[in-house]
Amino acid sequence: MKLLFNNIIKKAISTNATDIHFIPTDDKIDIKFRLLDKLAPIESIQHHVYLKLLTYMKYQAGLDVSKHNVAQSGRHIYKLKEIYFLRISTLPLSLGIESCVIRIIPQYFQKGDGTTNLSELYKLMNKKQGLIMFSGPTGSGKSTLMYHMLIYAKETLALNIITIEDPVEQIISGITQVSINEKAGINYTNTFKAILRCDPDIILIGEIRDDSIAKCAIQASLSGHLVLTTIHADNCKGTLLRLQEMGITMQEMSQSLLSVINQRLITTYNNERKLIYEQLNKIQIKHLIDNNFALPNSFFNLSTQLTQLAKEGVICEETKDRYI
After folding, report:
1. Cα–Cα distance between 43 and 66 in angstroms, integer?
2. Would you say 165 and 178 are in contact if contact means Cβ atoms under 8 Å apart?
3. CA-based nearest residue to 225, from 199, 243, 254
4. N or C: which end of the chain has fewer CB within 10 A?
5. Where are the strands (E) in 174-298, listed by range?
6. Which one, of 173, 182, 18, 175, lies nearest residue 87 by Cα?
7. Tell me: the pLDDT tens digits for 9-25?
8. Which of 61, 163, 52, 148 is nearest to 109 (CA)?
9. Residue 133 parent element (H or E)
10. Does residue 135 contact residue 232 with C-beta atoms inside 8 Å?
């Protein structure tokens, strides 16, 4: 099983796949790689082979090999030419068998080819305090964009940067990264208090998931720190509505929010990944709050950008419709 596992992982890494899916059917298990936006079929294996492979993968990720009716998730460190973190997640199905997905994450964050111009966003890192929020669906590049901004701040502004993540999935050299571990008593609330005593200039919070994390982020941004974080919302306006649901007042939003960014990673005709985003600046945020969440006329939303890219032939109509 070790040989089969290694062959699958090596093939996925060589093709730049981000995820490996093991999808059970009635008579076999289909293995598919996520390449850009799509799942590409790679090969199929028999059920009895998959069950042995699944047991091996669970063991490597520190999961309970005896449990088959509950979802589990763990991590395995894989060494090839460099080190990769493999996040292995299982899910019980009605077929009486478990599906499995492996997310492939390089240990060290790669800066990328720099094809997307982020100079306007980098200017936000010069601010001494405030909250910058990134929203969008899973896989839209929120964490990657935040990492790019942290590296810019580290390399050009010489600032003390501390992150709180659940878990830390990619390491950025020269930045203090704290991984949440509830079993060890390392949670967002007590870690936040400890971080504030360590003189940070910039704080990154992996994700705002509940009221307590939202309040910590707001308080830190109002007390002289620049805070970056993510939240799941469909658009910029939805981000503010999510904060409102979590008990953040209009006054707190108006005082703390520097910028709200909602983004997507789309695939062009040339099979390149392109980042597009809509953004509310501080003036627009105040307008929205003061006018019962009505967006200002100066706001340039994602739908308009996607339509324009389709007209220019950068993306196809199918891609445009998928994201609008």
Report:
1. 27
2. yes
3. 199
4. C
5. 176-179, 202-205, 226-231, 257-267, 273-281
6. 18
7. 999 999 999 999 999 99
8. 148
9. strand 130-135
10. yes
In this predicted structure, the answer to whether residue 259 has a pLDDT above a threshold of 60 is: yes
Instruction: Report the Cα 118 to chain-centroid distance in Å.
Output: 18
Q: Quote the pLDDT of residue 116.
A: 62
List C-alpha distances in Å: 135 to 15, 146, 236, 306: 28, 11, 7, 17
CATH superfamily ID and name for 118-322: P-loop containing nucleotide triphosphate hydrolases (3.40.50.300)
What is the torsional sign of CA 226, 232, 237, 238?
negative
Phi, psi of 184 (to 5 degrees): -90, 5
CA distance 263 to 275: 7
Task: For residues 79-102, give the mean pLDDT.
Answer: 92
Quote the pTM value.
0.85
Residue 253 has pLDDT above 70, yes or no: yes
- pLDDT for position 112: 59
Per-residue pLDDT averaged across 287-296, rounded?
94
Q: Give the orientation angle of helix 211-222 with respect to helix 188-196, to 10 degrees.
A: 10
In this predicted model, what pLDDT tens digit does every residue of 35-62 receive, in sequence order? 987 899 999 999 999 999 999 999 999 9
Cβ-proximal residues to 226 (8 Å cutoff; 6+ apart), any chain: 125, 127, 128, 129, 130, 132, 201, 202, 203, 258
Within 10 angstroms of residue 32's Cβ, the number of other Cβ atoms is: 19
Q: Where are the domains of the chain?
A: 1-105, 118-322
pLDDT band at residue 188 under the 50/70/90 scheme: confident
Are the beta carbons of 142 and 230 closer than 8 angstroms?
Answer: yes
